[in-house]
Amino acid sequence: MKIVLQRVTSASVTVDGQVTGSIGMGYLVLLGVGRDDTEEDCRRLADKIIKLRIFADENGKTNLDLAAVGGSLLVVSQFTLYADCRKGNRPNFIQAGDPDQAQRLYEYFVDYCRSCGQHVETGVFGGDMKVELLNDGPFTVILE
User: Fold this and answer.
1) Domain hosting residue 43, numbered range
2) Range 76-107 burial, b when 16+ CB lie within 10 A, else e
3) Active site (catalytic) residues
4) Counted domains in the chain
5) How far is Cα 29 from Cα 77, in angstroms, rounded to an integer?
6) Parallel, antiparallel, or unpaired: how do β-strands 120-122 and 18-23 relate?
7) Which CATH number do you get for residue 8?
8) Mutual orientation of helices 39-51 and 99-115 as an angle, nearest 10°?
9) pTM above 0.90?
10) What is the pLDDT of residues 90-111, one digit of tens each?
């Protein structure tokens, strides 16, 4: 599983002209599922994200987690995180999970985050999504 996490002051995703998810302060989570990923990988990365302390405290130090600032998650499926561009000029996605497995784990990840008390908005799995964000910092973290 690969995640690109961006700290945002706002983010939204639109599909076919309709906003499917929108948050204020929080994290935009681009989530890619690999061939060998499991529910345990989902839980481990979700727990890491929820506890990650990358918001500034009163002294300007990155010391606060999502709950401390009342933040939300916008989770967007992103199989292209598994693009392999080492050969030629056209990426292959051999390491990406098959669509059924990827959708199941994407939904599991979202449900798990919600079960941990997080406010979670989403895109549409497999949809042609337009993602807008105002990156805060910018602060971007890659997790695997």
Assistant:
1) 2-143
2) bbbbebbeeeeeeeeeeeeebbeeebbebbbe
3) 78-80
4) 1
5) 8
6) unpaired
7) 3.50.80.10
8) 40
9) yes
10) 999 999 999 999 999 999 999 9
